[in-house]
Design goal:
YaeB-like fold; 107 residues; 3 helices; alpha+beta; 5 strands; globular; 34% helix
Amino acid sequence: MRDYHVEILAEARSELEGLPTDMRARFEQIVHMIEEVGLEQMREPHVKHLQGSVWEMRLSGRNGIARALYVTARGHRVVVLRVFVKKTQKTPRREIETALRRAKEVP
């Protein structure tokens, strides 16, 4: 098993702080699972592949659902790029594009 470390970009951290408490708690729960059991062991309903290098953490709460989009980086790092409340069935294209744009900044 590899030891993973989850990092959150500054923009994504402020987006995460805007989520309701129960969704932030779910985010922390998924992060803990990734760091404890490794990314290879993670499956739906916790995480799901979206496109290319972008994956999503699936967060739910009393008032709806949210997503935290992330990529993996060197050194067993998981970098959270974008956090948003999901209002449609399918993840909006612009959210994936925002994550891909932010991913270019990840060393």
